[in-house]
Structures
1.
Amino acid sequence: MKRWFSVLCLVTILSMLVTACAAPTPQVIKETVQVEKVVEKPVEKIVEKQVVQTQVVEKQVEKQVVVTATPKPLPKDAKLSLSVFRGMDSWDPKNAYAPLIEKAVGFPIFWSGVPGADYVEKRNVIMASGNYPNAIQLGVCEPAFQQYYNDGLLLPLDDYLKKYPVVANTYPQEVWNALRQKDGKIYTIPRLGGVYYPQTINYRRDWLDALGMQEPKTLDEFRAFLQAVKDKDPGKIGKEKLIAFVPNRLSGGGGLALTWVEPVMAAFGTPYNAWIVSPQDPNKIVYAPTLPEFKDALVYLRGLMKDGLLDQTYLVSKDRGLFKYYAGTAGATTDWPQFVNLRREAIQNAQKEAKPVLNYIPGLVGPKGVKGGPVITPDPRGDCNPSFALTISASPAQADAFFKLVQWQWTDGYKLLTLGVEGKSFDVVNGVAKRRGRDAILKEAPEYDLYMLDRLLLIPHPKNMVFRSDNPSYADIPESEMKYVTPILNDTIANWVTLNYAVNTSDKVIADNIVDIQTKTEEFATKVILNPNLDVNAEYDAYMKALKQTKFDEVAAKINELNKVKDVQASWKALQANYKAAMEAK
Amino acid sequence: MRLFQRSTHPALRGHNPIADALIYLVLTLLTIVSVAPIIHVFSVSLSNPNEAAQMGLMLWPKGFTPDSYLFVFKGPAVLRAYGVTAFITVVGTALNLLLTTTSAYVLSRSDLPGRGALTVFVVITMLFSAGIIPGYMLIRNLGLLDSVWAMILPGAVSAFNVILMRNFFQELPDSIIESARIDGASEMRILAQVVLPLSGPAIATVGLFYAVAHWNELFRGIFYITDPTKWPLQVLLRQVVVMADLTELGMSNRDMYGQLSVNQLTIRAATVMAAAIPIAALYPFLQRFFVKGIVLGAEKG
Amino acid sequence: MTFADGSLGGAKMEASAAMTTPRGLARRPRGAVARWLHRAWKYRELYLLFLPAAIFLIIFAYVPYTGLVMAFQNFSPRRGIFGSPWVGLEHFQYLFGRAGFFQILLNTVLISFYKLIFGLPLPIIFALLLNEIRMIWFRRVSQTLASFPHFLSWVVYGGLMVIFLAPGGALPNTLATLSLEDPKLLSTPATFRGVLVVTEILKGFGWSAIIYLAAITAIDPTLYEAAMVDGANRWRQMWHITLPAIRGVIVILFILQLGRILDAGFEQVFVMYNPSVYSVAEIIDTYVYRVGLVSGRFSLGTAVGVFKGVIGLLLILAANQVLKRLRMPTIW
């Protein structure tokens, strides 16, 4: 027994020594960094018989030696391959597309990633431990971005943008300028979302017709529709399962759920969690929930909740409202119009006897005639969709390869990345390319699984997102529905959008306090909506008092400083023009 | 016959039939309360997605369909993950038990000099954790990144379980150990031949705790494993759920095949069952060890 | 009596051995340290036995502790742990200075405490009752089924509880048929902590009972036989034999859980709470997560961890002292 034990001990210790020795030692490079030290010296000045002391700031430049470790070598020959790290679900490294992409770009690429939900955590950890991949998915509005930028971990992209004009010209100049950091350089290639996916109201047209009503245009008419749905149950759903209005909530519960009733809140002139132009002063930006009209918005929603017109689990549970709509038991939801056929098919699937017709309302008009539509932050920073950045571990060759990859994906590679390979993942039928069903592909040629293309497409080109029949994503939508939705989308973007003016929030005071402000707002709104007995005015006063604790005035001042009304409006105009151009491009 | 014997005590205990009935009633209630959620999840996993979405709590499947399970087990990925996780669990638990029993035994010897210090040494590790980054750096420096050993080694000693086992050992009668010592046995021999056979319940308990912890391990898998073929079960199943509901994947939520974006509710239920059933089956299997250890010639005068 | 290899005995034995063996006189140790080392040498086999576990703990727990300095630095990934600038207690000041932090700390401690105290009885009762029944199959089935909720994550279990308790769920509906109003348990600050505690107990009692069951099986059956002869009924037996026997386990579990007092159950709270109950249910971990304090700010996250550990340690030390006074088994 004793011998066994000693042997076991020895084996344990030996194996650990072996693994320890097998690990490559990180190399250490010394680099000289110029550091500016700021020294304040008081200086006396005599001004009008008064001695005034002013501070003089002297800048001393010091040379510091910074010791950093090189990143751990990659599995493939690190000098040659480009390593891309991003959120990737169900990634199969043996898929057939990656080699095709490599061949086209002429550079080996090493793809790696984590399931999307955990991506940010893991990326932060590997960056913090010095393991920098060459390219990472990173949003400018993430706190991590400021960390990496301040630490000098990111590569400026300006030179490469000059070299690859296709990439540079894809977005308007305003977008690029918005992405410039303190040193005036650009560090991310953005991915635009908001303007293409406006939130509107989606309702059951077939139910409306059965009720003999007109399409609601105002909040009151909308409420009347919901009430009629509840009272008369035109879809014959049954009292228990019927829900008049179920806000979408694809992004989760709690405070986020409040962002899924944009048209309603905006119709009162107080879009939730948005900074808008002050009704008193056209040059000032205010936080919409602090306006007294916000109380009216909450009372309206509270009324819906109390009268059973609103999904009863709204704000309490984190369930996805859209799935209740899919079940065909709801009269209206908030949704993006371009997915109309998906919703319709789902409802049809759930209720075989029904003949669902889905219509969209760009927005609703509030009591003071305010047009309430979707809220859009006209800036890639505010949008915070995952962009891509290069880290300092990327050599010039690797950075070049990255841009080549992006450019290729948006030009010659576009077909491969949307359709795959003919004969394996899509077929040409009557001159039109049709993708194969997934089961068929998995059976015959599993390495051509189209899901992989989603992972390989770094950033969707705007033409991947625009609502047109030649966009393969929308290939299956019937012509009639396409004809119906297009003008609604255009109308929404042109006339119904409320802007969120807090596009630039990169300041410490804002970053430290903005979430607390949001928390207080969430609490206030949720308590009022869920409790018919609470006095709104008392709660509002308590809310305004609570905001004082969050340095609200400082934050508001900063936001006004960083965001000028005119500039934000100019950004929006540029985005609108960009959208229009994409819609009309040949 | 054995099923109806008294579990632990000879049938000498006086019993009151009313009290008995009451006890059975209470136990039944508690059992129902516990098992109801599982029944619900199981029912959902076998239901039609659209019908399941409409229901609140379910006791049996509505619109019975095994499709959700077929979706989860499509392809070799899940089975491979089972294999990886089984390896981690078996090897990990074996290592855990070895280290835990030895250290717990040492800590249970009340006359050991420095025992207090060693106990503190162990308990501190339960209270403080350095966080994910130093952990990651360590694994990287040890060259264990992307290796299943990164899942096994870091948690090899759990202070909580060591203290638990130490307490079990402390409850054992000193006289038995003393007499073995007097007979000239080495500590290791005492541990192996005297203490462990008497500690069936403790080993089963602690072993179960470790095994379940290994089986359910998620975060180590996310941070330390990059190769998708080595992903442990929980990591992989998380993905399956996400893949089932493409509407969650950012803005381009169009299913690439024009196929309906499937409601993830039933898929998620199926993954929960797929993960829970194998490991939950371990507990009943271990219950046979919850019997008093055989005490041969217990007290020698 | 000779001892084969210098094994255990009391000091007296040692002294007598030292005096009787021929070499004893020459080897008499001098000074306290030398004496201690001499004693330690006698226990060398035990130390050796402890060594493997110690090695693992050193490598995987203690070595990373060097990273705890991050809590006192402005950690910069580029400069690493040894190069980042030192800021002392700045992060702690930042954390404690946040408006509402005291309330959050209070929530965390209260929720943990309630769970600890109220969560104590049910697993014990369950184990005791299981021990009382005669049908082995019933006991095994009940034990097993009761442990099932443990295998569900809070995302699933908590989600179910929310469905059950939310408006439109089974509970309000049932109450409605009895003409009772919906108590809105999930959106009323006064009841929400209770919901957290009760659901946690229901989810975990079957699993927690395992430890107690294991302890109960270790009880010497002759004790029960003797009690029977003395005429004690089952309840007296339970009170005088079973309970005292598992007293040690109860106490040790209590202390160990005290060490985790500031971990009030992140996943559960996160899944089940909503903004209307933030004031009573926001705990340190959910706050830190939601506010994104740690996203990219590792120093702050480490500081939170250090804070939690320190408080846990203090509590364990305090509890240990109290238990010593009460002459109960202590942790060290």
2.
Amino acid sequence: MDEQDLISRSKSGDVEAFNLLVEQYQRMVYNLALRMLGNAEAAEDASQDTFISAYKAIGKFRGGSFKSWVLRIAANSCHDKLRVARRYRVVSLDTLLLETDELPQANNNESPEDYALRCELGRFLNEGLTHLPEDQRLVVILSDVQGLSYEEVAQATGSSLGTVKSRLNRGRTRLRDFLLQREELLPSKFRLNK
Amino acid sequence: MFRAKGEPLCRKVRGMLSEYIDNGLDSENKSLVERHLETCEACSKELESLRMTVQLLHRVAEVPAPRSFTVIVPEPRREGAFGPASMRWLRPATAIVAIALVVLLMGDFLHGFENNAGVNHGPGNVTVSGSGFQLAPSSVAAEQQTWVAVPGVMGEMSLATAKAVGYTDYTVVPSPPVSQPIAQPIPIVLGNEGPTGAQVTVGGEGGVGWPLRQTEIGLGAAVFVLLGLMIYARRQRRKKVGAR
């Protein structure tokens, strides 16, 4: 069954059809929330909120990219969580990263050393991402981690194409500076100044 | 890190490097960047470090979702159950009761204000003493319903009776007997016909009888109950869609 059909059935109240869409996009939404919030528990909450909000609002979906639409809801959900965390200082963004115990799946053709290196690199980059301003972090994650095009990023963030390019440029530069400042902590294989 | 030396062209090129990495530049800007990179080592290093950063970000692996985020819609409530659907009448009902309460309270306030106008009174029972006043001539009915105490006489009597007997020294009791509630307050005006030597005490409730107070309290309670039901109904509606 194709996506448009699932969307049409979801609009008419078919929750099973909607849940097929959820299964298709939940990994992407969860990963966005995890990189944005840096905390597995908060990312689960944000992901669940995203799909509940999407189900309630599916009638307002007017076509276009469903992926961008869901990611936009997810981004708003993450902003809400960060706003609440800032207001009540429930968790510090600097310590959120330490609570991320999610590990990527190992590839079949990957040695244990390479897998360990990749995990270390992932943790390091996550820490770098949490040091970016929210708007730049969102654009960098969507574009460079999740591989969305500029147009999809613009739809998912509700920004213009020019704004996306500008935020991406500043976000990458800032992240590059973060990595260079802590280069001795980076696995030698991945150092920027070789 | 690789600082531009303040040259406008370096700054312009660095602003386009991110897009250059993504092959997003048009041919004109692309050739501009490439020509500049051939001659500027700092910008070349900037490009390489940015490109490495992007490559590192591409290597960040996705983690699997720890659980399913599918949604569940609970079964519809059974007939006759107290649910959000049966709450449609709540909002107008609450509005009507609240408006009625406000109208009553305003009427109560204005009524009391009119009755007490011109009479100097404190927060409790009001005492107007001395001379220079009389009951309004048009208040014969009120005189019959106004109860007074006469010094040296047991019990109370109506003001009309006291006048008929010829008592001039009497005190209006603050509240009438329970069996005869006063529907209308006692109108009192200041007169200029000379001293009468009487002392008049008027109840300080602005002439409001007990049933009115009871109605106001009842309506206030009804507003609170209806507001509570509205909050409950709203929460029920939010629970309608949830996580599996």
